[in-house]
Amino acid sequence: MFMYNGYSSYDSEIQRHSICNSPLSCSIPSVVAEKIAMPYLSHIYELIISNRPFSVTTDKDFKWTLEIFAFGFTCEESAIYQLCANVYVEWLKVFETTSINSNSIPPILREKTEFYWSQMFWHLYHLFVIHDEKTADLLTKRMYTHKVLRQLQIMISQTELSFDLWHILLQVFLAIGDTVLSPAYRTNEECTAVMSHRLVPSIYQVFMAAIDKIQIPPGLWRTFRDYAQTWRHRPAVIYDWAQLTCVLTSTVVHKLWWSDILPLQYVCTETDQGEYTQKIIDSLSLDKLIITWIQFLTILQNPSDCGDISIFLQMPKYSSQLQINSNLKLKDFTSLQELPRIFVNVTKAIGMFVDIWLGKEIDPTCLYSPKPSNHTIVITSDNLLSTPNHHQSSRATAQSLRGIPSFVQHHQQVPIPATLRTTRSQVDNRKINMPSSQTFSPMTPLLIATTQPEKPSPIKMTRINHPTVNSFMHLYGSWILDCCLLQIKDRHSRSSINDTSRANETEKNIDIQNERLMDEAFAKSFATICTIFSSSQCDEFIYPEYLSRFYYVLQQGLRFYHGDEQRSQAIIESILLNSGDLFRINLRGINILISLYLDAIEYYLQTDIQSYINYNLSISKGTNNNNTSSIRDRFIRIRSKAIHILMSIVSLPFHYEHLQQHLFEDHLEKSHDVQTTTIKTFLDYRLRIFPLLLSALQTEQDITNTQLLFGTIRLACSLAAHHERQQEQTDENVKKDFTPGYLSHAVILICDKGTNDSHLFLAALDTLISIVTDPICQLPIDIWKNVLKRLCTFVDAQLHRSPKDHTREMHSTCVATYNTLITLIIERPTLLDDYENLYKLCEIIELGISGEKAQTPDGLVSKKDKEFHPASQRVAEAAEYLMFVLFEHKAVLHLKNDICRNWLDESTFANTTFKYFAINGNTLFAMNELPYNANDGMPTIILLCRGLFGKNVWTLNFRHNPLSNSTVQYNKVLNERIEHENGKSSSSPINHSTADQKDKSLITHGTKNERTKSELSIPTLNSILKRDEEKLNLFRALKGKQINIEEQAIQRAHIFDEKPLPECKPPECQKHFESIRLFLSHYGFGSLDSMYHLMNGKHWNDTKLFDRLQPRIQLLNSDSDTFMDDIKKLDKISPTLYCTGQIYYLKKHQTTLLDSFSNTKTPEELNPAFLTMISQFGTVVEVIRHCGWTGNIETSWKTIANSQTNTNSSSKTLAEIDGEDSIFYWVDLTTEMAFYLPHQFSVDNQGSEMRILIVWLEEFREDLDSILPAQEQSSKLRDISIIGIHPLKNHLFRIFLNSNAQRMQSACASIPLIDGMVIPLHILSFFLRQAVHNLCRRKRLEDSQSSQTAYSVRKTRITKIIEKYQNQTNNLDEFFQNLFFLSTTTEQESNAQSTTNRNPMVVVQS
Exposed site from 294, 821, 1031, 1268, fewest CB < 10 Å? Predict the structure, then answer.
């Protein structure tokens, strides 16, 4: 604004030359002068046509000729100025080299071209002057002015003019512009209004050409700026300024910042000099380009003045007309009626400037074209559509085009005219992902967004070095702030009642279309300023003056003004759509706006979509489908941004807790509608946020938004539960919070939303799993019972759908539901205490395995009559796994011991030989008999069971009765006493044996109490007796009578026969058993049916479930050299889910993961919160001593010697937890997880396992994929999910995910983590672990649609082992000979005893 201060304006010189001093104009009557000029001009024109030489050769004669031309251009007789224009157009060719052979150009003009044309240029000025008192043919005037302008520009582009001629030519163009553009106009048909569309781009292009040829004096730039300030009521002035400045800005950005972004191309439809102007722009040096950009950017001074009508009323051209004609009204000025449309273009232009600097893709066609049209559509910057009959101007070749949706444009094939146009290659290279601040533009009820077709997500470009907020505000801040604050003045002028008729007239005559345009302009202004501050880097310093003004502007914009609902709604929606990141970028003092944002968010999240559509349609009076879909799309986007804002602030009430709320009004003004009588803390915000989330979930209909709400509610659940636990620990008398009720309501809502929509179902299941596995979120068991019931109902409904509805995706949801039920019964084992729950689980297990339930509408179906037709193999395997867990799940868990036990194998038992059997074609038994004294003379075996769902190792001890029975203890002592009396043992061994047996009995009894939950569901004898009390009493009476009878008989026997009977003694205990035979016989594998099928080779009918349940046994030949290798390969196929998280730490200025490997060597330089986070991932274990998942298939699931497992590992440094030496290990019944900090980035992806990277970034990155090595970025086959963590200054942590981690199978795969979430440290590790788990689980579910599951792979491997190593048996004698005489009990008792002591295992009674 002050760059030309101190330089004189050329205005006085221009005004002096603009006066015509021709004697024909001053001294002779016009009628006489016309009679003099007409023949002479006709003669000259005839010479030109016939190419005859011009007879004038002296300066005196040629000067008189010029006087005639001077008069001719000022004459309003069309025939005269036509001749003058035609002659001058021909004489302009004197500057061309090809005009040497032309005789029509006077020789004296060739000799003194510069001298004469310095005068003749001013003659052309008069051609553009319009005299109101004269009635010339305006159409002819416009045609010849266009002809002259075109020839002038051609001459300029092809000629090297001197500095003086350039100086005069620029003054002439400014004079023409001042004459044509500065006056007010009353209709769009006026000559000046029509001429402006051709004149304005010519002026800009002539100055661009002059920049390339000469150094324009600063005084001339000042004159241009002063004149342009009075031209701003012309739509073409703003339109062409915006277009040219956008091109200059993009070229500066291309040369100064990002060479990969191709600049916009300048194309003008009004002139033919677009390509020439573009060449000039491309040829400018960087310094000259920047100066030119600044000069054109500031040429209009403050363009925001276009929104203030009072500024134009103060201009002399308006004030003089209003003073002269008192009857003249403001509505009579079309130029004033155009101001709202001009103001919209101003705000859009500023928004485009900002977007270009941010590296975003812009739409050059979003500007309103300056030409009027009869049928127009009001739109906004992102192609918002409204009802017809609204006022809009458009270029003649594209009327109404900018408001038509893309699909309409495609069918109508309307050409797209624009002053800016990008080629196809440019568009491909400039496809940058549009951030939230620019994706959506403001809407009013009459300005409705169109539904854009979905496009593939473009590749994000990293723009770390974009300008700072301070730079933006230095450059555009005053303009955009004025645009935002102008709405206060405009609202006041419309709402207040003034005494002057002028003010009343202003209020009355602004029509509804212009009001909607002003609404659009204000909304765009707020969108732009939110975009500027949202672009702030997290550690960026912003001047407090800018922050305070920004907060004040938002405070004004977020207020809802009654009586001005439409504008308030448009501004509030624009703010919400463009401020999704404001609360997570470390803006100082931003929390002062939380209350205002919550007020705005409440309306949109508590309103259902149909009510919103009806309200907007009633205002716009439009009922077409386009409007409805547009409103729906916009409402969904607004709710999405509102949820993101809630996601950013939901942690603040618990983080700041007792910090007092400071409302914005407390610092600026005491508003009449704001009451601050009570002091509130941040903790009170939760009373608004939590119910708001639940209300939003109830009314949400969009799938993506619902999943965002799932994640936000999940975060709120943990925060509330953790806060309540802290309160209970600090104050025992604290009142119960509303947390349990909130959590219960949230779980039921999530379950309902998920089961009602299959697309949401996977996300809902992930959320439920996340909540149920959180030890802090404790809910009443009735809630989980309700969830279990709904999930079972969902599976039942899905599997009973018609065959045409069965798809892979539907089966995936069923598999995921079975897995969720597994997690549910593991985490809430008391659910299995309920008979109804167990019955429902058994029903869906049966339905999944067989394809139908036993209880059908037609009656009860027996298993022997049931056909085996499951929905799919995947569903059947998931149901079997649920059954497996149901039968294995204990009430008391010893997780670590169970995991270690399951990874024992044959090498654990030294000097032992195992016999191998195949059971039912899908299970392998490895059995070894222990010696006689291992179980006090009773049969004992070691059993390794390998099935579809893993491997289990047991020792099985044969007992006639459980050791916990006191009768057994009594009989044992009695037997020992009898043996002692017979002299077979001494008292000392008896006491030792008794003591030893007591110890063993206690241990076994404790183990026996660890029954599975399915066992606990079996009714006890006492419960049955209580149920049949009457029958029991009858039995007791009969028993009493029988006792009396037997006692009387004994007495009579003693009376009649006194001879004592010999005492009965038990036989000696058998010391030789075929323990394997006993086991197979007791479990039905040695039954006659099994032997019959074995001998006759009869194949089972697998379609009948009854035949499938018949036991089948095959003996395997384990003597082959490759047998144990195949067994080990089977053990490497884990049925459980195993996950790996690779952890990285990127410091500031580190751009890729390759730069981060050395950071772990200096942990003291890392953020302490990072060390706290990784320490909570799990237990540090050494890879060589670990028998579970290690992050590498080659080193996982191995057998560890007892000496190694008992060795205490020393403490590890951070650098040693690299996946090769040590890892962080976490495990539950269904999942194993390994976390480590690698020292290198491995390109190998270890099969189909998803790679999950947890990256701590000190510096925020918008594009996480950019931190990958170059080869990974370019790879199309990579499957890498990245979870980024950025610490904020308020000690909270922002989560951001790459695209691969956000969505899988049309659902959010990273719940409980959502992109943009802000969470505290105390739940960060837990959420990260759950996110890794859900990502891997979703990946395995996704892979199972196209490949075999782990269960299928194990089954295939087991089948191949059976086929390869089965022992062909021709008769029963051979089979039992192998079973009995090749018994494994060949080892010495000492070896067996040492084996038993060395391998502590759970003892199961048989």
Answer: 1031
